[in-house]
Amino acid sequence: MKEKFKLLDVQLKLALLIIFGFFFFYAIPFPEKSRSFPQLISVVSIIFVLISLFFDFTKQEIVHGEIIDVDDAEVKILDDETKRARKRRFYKAWGIIIVSSAVGFLGGFLFSSLFFFLGFTIFFGEKKDLVKNICIALGMTALIYVTFEIIMGVPLLEGILW
Amino acid sequence: MDMVLQAIEFVFQWQNMAALVGGSVYGIIIGVLPGLGPSAGMALMIPIVLKWNPATALIFMGSLYKCSNYGGSLTAILVNTPGDASNAATILDGYPMCEQGRGNVAMGISATSAMVGGTIGMVVLICMAPWLADFALKFGPAEYFLTAILALSIIAAVVQGATLKGLAAAGLGLLLSTVGFDVITGHLRYTFGWMIIEDGIPLIQGLVGLFAVTQALVLAESASSISRLSKLSGSFWEGVIIYFKHPMAIIRASLIGLVIGVLPAVGQSSAGLLAWAEAKRESKHPETFGQGDPEGLLASETSTNACMPGDLVCTIALGIPGSVGAAIFLGIMIIFGVIPGPLVFAEKADVVYSLFVSLVVTSFVIFIFGATVAKHFAVFTLIRNEIIVPCILVVSLLGSFAIRNMMPDIMISLAFGIVGYLMLKGGFTPIPLLLGLVLGEMVETNYHRALMISGGSYSIFFQSTISKVLIFLTILSFAGPYMGPFWKTLTQGEK
Lengths: 162, 495
Hints:
By secondary structure, chain A is an all-alpha fold. Helix content of chain A is 82%, strand content 0%. Chain A has 7 helices and no strands. Chain B contains 21 helices and 2 strands. A two-stranded antiparallel ribbon of chain B has the order 1-2. The N and C termini of chain B lie far apart (60 Å).
């Protein structure tokens, strides 16, 4: 039972239950016509999620059996390593996204663009391709500036700082 | 007939052909950039075309409108990011084909679908425009509500084996569509004082997050490229041949597209999904749908392309736009003195038929573009992820930003990106959420309107024959995935 709660699938469904519940209760002070639709959808969605959770918790034996069947130590070790590597890359990607977006808020989207390209090419690319990748990053940023700022008039250099 | 011949002669004049090709190329570029859909593309060009001959200007805008959809298909196939909500169904089989290194074949199917679906749609439109407009008038709020519910029920087919998850995701989409001003009472809902969502959660920003940001994160996790095989197999022409091997699927998808197209506000996203689900239901190998089955791709693409002319029927014959793009197109027609309505076919027949003929020609321009230029785009699937990921992020977030020139829109996209990523990892697909978000306002508005008409009685939803047919199809759609195994057991159980 406890193991079930560790599954992302189950955690997401529980999160959905909270979200749907929130939408339902937050709508109570709304005028009747404004609240009826979101409340109806909330209730129906809660029912769907509850049924889905019921199935998740009742098929415990089947899932357990499947896990036992795939009892290959080598595959498992490799899989864990891949999983860790993927997780590392995911967090690195989010780091780049957050920093690039923050820079965009300060100086304008063009800086975001530059940081996105530099971040991914430097932190994800191979060292031997570093110079080539930096050139690509600068070229792409220049292309974006010409296409969107100059030709289409999108303000790419407007941020909090200026 | 004379009018059509005159229109053909007019469209093939050099200045009109230049407008047609220019509009097509511009439309494809606009469509490729997520966020800059046909509405933004047309709005940007209004000041330029204002001094043109009305028919030439409408030819330009019509080509732009049609080709932007094709541009959206290209990104849906290549990087799993639909350019617009109308391309949502394209990713179901288009992107898996790219992952298998069959990007060129997918390109061939997409371009051929644009040509065949668009041509069938336009020819039927030219012949049956007045009749189709009458059919659309038979739809009241209850029928529109049920049509949207039918589109949502298609989720049962989209996420086979996870129907409940799909329905929950659709529920979340519908709930998110209620954020902002209530169209019926004007009451503000779920905005928490955040002004930028007072007009509702912006659809394009949500779409960019759910698909582009999610896809970028998924790609960033691995060190290779979109094509898992790191090589391309198959050719553009193989896609063309595969396409013509499925005549029945083409006819079915075209019919679905046409019918959905004439229903205002139901939109191309529903048409693509409905045709995909129908093709899956009819297929001898439904288990391959969603895993790179060319039949799934051709059904969704043909239907979406056939839907656009139907959409124009309501816009031109009734003045009721079927989508945001069509609404802008309607505005442009009025600017040029072509007042939509039943009389437009008599009063401005030359302009209207020139537009229709130009859209048929545009379908062929798309195919030529696909065969000569777009087929080379498949090599993008071989570019390493450290290059393609920032390209996807920058172009899509730029599209999200450029709509209102507001950096907080990027936050909305990133938030949807997290939601999309978590959903994907948890075995949910973001498509039902998107569909719920797209159809939410239509569902709610027509739900209230129907109840207002009936004085609060729910019987209005079961009265007309159209309603009954729609309810039957919805039940069939919900039950379909479960009825397959049941039917098999029933018929083969004795063996």
